[in-house]
User: Which sequence fits this backbone?
């Protein structure tokens, strides 16, 4: 029975290795006497097939997005080893805990891990990874669980490594404008810590996400147009590789603003979504809090006019800090939800950062461009509460959209195109939405050429879900056709692995697979994400 | 509307353990661990300073003086106040050991003396400090000065040399009118304090900071009460699951709840 479970637990039955040997304990190899191999193997296949049938039956009988019916066990002695590493109370196999760790903020079905562990030091992580690796147990790193692409769902169960207890702000070097944090530190917490230094970390994805998690998904936010994304702002990473080795991608303790030393390992791991290793520390670039911020809102007669304005503002070299587009469907949703009074028309929300004088001239110039494109109903504000009021519409978008169809869930597309292609891309997406009869307000970080269609759909309605997924693929392919990407900031996760193949092409994907195979030959580190598992032959 | 008097504001700033830090009680139970722990300005004092700065931006206040009582490190807190927009700082030096038993009454006396010295006519303090939660300094300062007090302010307006203050009270909001000079204590919803920006932090280094001692002000800061012990709250125990409603009712009766 032990041998059986360990064989079947490995999930996919690779043709090249039928029984996994583990060096550290002898139980699975107990069936290795060659004379009994043949009969044992056929017995195992029989049980394997019946187990798969049983899995299928259970899934059909009890479909559920939020709850998981299957409990797969990890061998007791492995669990004991994990407890001895991280502490008795830092390993859990309770169903509620596992389900919480099996999903994020996306629509992907919950896939619970078999156990959740909470390491408190990098050494713990390294030892846990080694144990899992030796026992061929899949691993999923977990930060705040606020991703949008099902990145933490444990497609092959295994162990979820929850890093939230590693929550030190290791150091802040105000003069050098850098800070080093552990995975349990979220972006709001870092900014609050920094508030009396006059510095901030500007990248602001919707959620109060783990900074290391943001590194893993190459996150971006509303002010990427001015401050860049995680790719430009991670200086060094401490990573635990799938074999357990700990590396510092730029060298331990190094934190320069630029370097040309060797291969850029830091940016290899940024965006790797936990498939190449686990980030246990990140050194980030900080910026001075702007002396003055001015926000502005402007309505336009058409999407084309709004996007043209954006393109022209960028091309004039105005260092706009935020430039967000909300289409009229979104404005209407926001008005209703937040009780606001904005014109129901495609609207740009802009923000300018800089010195007292600099900001005013930026805003004026942008205002002129907007007017030239037919913009109207300007509102400006520089007071904190006024600016918050102006931006309230934008911040409440997600909830406003869900309120359009109560009981529904939201799926966001995330394409990014060169900014000159943006007007056509958004207009085409809008037409597609109208043709498909979907409810999908559009919100975009148009300064980066990135826009999201928030599809509000009924998760229980298979037809709608299918339509939404097909729409997502169409929009992505439209973007790919004009030199864009299928994901500007959310990541590939589990849902866009096919699109990644179309985006990169065969040789590109082959190169990525080489990297993955080199770091993680047994495909244990967050399997099924970014790169699809290769087809298995049974 | 002509405002006759020039409003000169005094704002109190206390250096406390940062609100985000996990507090640890010292093993000898005499207090909490403060070594190598992040400190910052009391959040209610940040709100107080922000309000003073807004009054200055509206040209209602003429000058803002920030005051802090304590050891050397208090100067960091005062620099933050200056970076936010205060004009001058006064550091009342109290050595580390005396500081540990510095109590609201002593601080109120010190502040009152600074008020007299600086010809202040509006004192804005945080409603309480997040370390001792005393909520006494503002009230005592008003009493010592013989001034009216408007505590838990969530909105302050100067109308014809009187202060109209909306106070947060249990039942809701209460609006009162007080004569100037007055003491106001700031509550959470008064405003959202600004962050100090780098250029302002640099400018703040040049703003004047005066150093005084309690004896310069003629104040005796001897404590009037002793802290006997500081303890952790009791550990939360695990809950118990019950199998039926009858079971639940029986357990609640056992605990004397029903």
Assistant:
């Amino acid at each position: 029975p032990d041998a059986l479970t360990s064989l079947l637990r490995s999930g996919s039955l690779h043709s090249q290795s039928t029984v996994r040997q583990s060096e550290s304990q002898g139980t699975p190899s107990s069936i290795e006497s060659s004379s009994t191999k043949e009969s044992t193997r056929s017995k195992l296949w029989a049980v394997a097939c019946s187990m798969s049938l049983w899995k299928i039956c259970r899934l059909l009988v009890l479909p559920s997005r939020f709850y998981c019916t299957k409990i797969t066990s990890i061998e007791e002695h492995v669990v004991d080893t994990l407890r001895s590493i991280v502490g008795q109370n830092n390993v859990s196999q309770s169903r509620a805990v596992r389900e919480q760790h099996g999903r994020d903020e996306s629509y992907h079905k919950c896939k619970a891990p078999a156990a959740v562990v909470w390491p408190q030091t990098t050494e713990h992580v390294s030892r846990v990874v080694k144990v899992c690796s030796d026992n061929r147990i899949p691993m999923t790193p977990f930060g705040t669980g606020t991703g949008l692409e099902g990145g933490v769902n444990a497609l092959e169960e295994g162990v979820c490594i929850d890093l939230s207890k590693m929550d030190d702000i290791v150091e802040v070097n105000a003069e050098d404008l850098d800070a080093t944090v552990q995975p349990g530190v979220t972006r709001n917490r870092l900014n609050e810590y920094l508030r009396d230094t006059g510095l901030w970390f500007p990248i602001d994805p919707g959620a109060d996400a783990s900074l290391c998690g943001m590194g893993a998904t190459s996150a971006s936010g509303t002010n990427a147009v001015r401050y860049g994304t995680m790719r430009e702002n991670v200086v060094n990473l401490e990573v635990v590789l799938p074999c357990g080795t700990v590396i510092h991608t730029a060298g331990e303790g190094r934190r320069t603003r630029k370097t040309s030393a060797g291969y850029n390992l830091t940016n290899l791991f940024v965006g790797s979504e936990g498939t190449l290793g686990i980030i246990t520390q990140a050194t980030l670039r900080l910026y001075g809090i702007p002396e003055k911020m001015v926000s502005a809102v402007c309505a336009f007669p058409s999407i084309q006019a709004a996007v043209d304005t954006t393109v022209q503002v960028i091309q004039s070299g105005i260092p706009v800090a935020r430039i967000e587009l909300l289409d009229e469907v979104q404005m209407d949703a926001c008005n209703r939800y937040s009780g606001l009074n904005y014109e129901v028309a495609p609207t740009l929300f802009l923000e300018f950062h800089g010195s007292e004088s600099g900001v005013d001239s930026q805003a004026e110039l942008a205002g002129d461009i907007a007017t030239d494109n037919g913009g109207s109903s300007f509102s400006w504000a520089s007071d904190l509460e006024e600016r918050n009021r102006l931006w309230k519409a934008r911040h409440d978008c997600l909830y406003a959209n869900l309120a359009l169809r109560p009981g529904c869930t939201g799926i966001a597309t995330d394409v990014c195109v060169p900014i000159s292609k943006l007007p056509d891309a958004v207009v085409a997406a809008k037409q597609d939405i109208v043709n498909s009869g979907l409810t999908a307000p559009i919100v975009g970080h148009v300064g980066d050429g990135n826009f999201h269609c928030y599809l509000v759909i009924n998760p229980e309605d298979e037809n709608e879900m299918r339509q939404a997924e097909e729409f997502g693929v169409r929009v992505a392919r439209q973007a790919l056709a004009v030199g864009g990407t299928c994901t500007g900031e959310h990541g590939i996760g589990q849902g866009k692995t096919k699109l990644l193949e179309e985006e990169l092409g065969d040789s590109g994907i082959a190169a990525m697979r080489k990297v993955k195979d080199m770091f993680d030959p047994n495909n244990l580190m967050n399997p099924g994400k970014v790169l699809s598992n290769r087809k298995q032959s049974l | 509307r002509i405002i006759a008097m020039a409003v000169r504001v005094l704002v109190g700033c206390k250096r406390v353990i940062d609100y985000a830090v996990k507090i640890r009680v010292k093993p000898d139970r005499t207090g909490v661990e403060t070594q190598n722990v992040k400190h910052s300005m009391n959040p209610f004092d940040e709100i107080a300073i922000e309000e003073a700065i807004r009054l200055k931006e509206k040209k209602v206040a003429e000058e803002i003086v920030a005051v802090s009582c304590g050891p050397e490190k208090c100067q960091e807190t005062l620099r933050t106040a200056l970076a936010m927009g205060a004009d001058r700082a006064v550091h009342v030096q109290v050595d580390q050991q005396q500081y540990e038993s510095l109590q609201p009454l002593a601080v109120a006396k010190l502040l009152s003396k600074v008020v007299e010295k600086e010809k202040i006519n509006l004192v804005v303090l945080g409603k309480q400090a997040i370390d001792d939660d005393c909520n006494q300094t503002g009230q005592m300062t008003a009493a010592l000065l013989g001034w009216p007090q408007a505590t838990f302010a969530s909105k302050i307006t100067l109308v014809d040399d009187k202060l109209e203050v909306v106070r947060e009270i249990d039942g809701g909001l209460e609006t009162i009118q007080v004569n100037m000079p007055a003491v106001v204590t700031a509550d959470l919803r008064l405003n959202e304090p600004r962050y100090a920006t780098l250029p302002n932090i640099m400018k703040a280094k040049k703003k004047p900071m005066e150093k005084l001692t309690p004896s310069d002000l003629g104040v005796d800061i001897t404590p009037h009460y002793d802290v006997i012990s500081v303890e952790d709250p009791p550990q939360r125990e695990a809950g118990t699951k019950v199998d039926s409603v009858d079971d639940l009712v029986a357990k609640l009766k056992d605990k004397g709840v029903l």
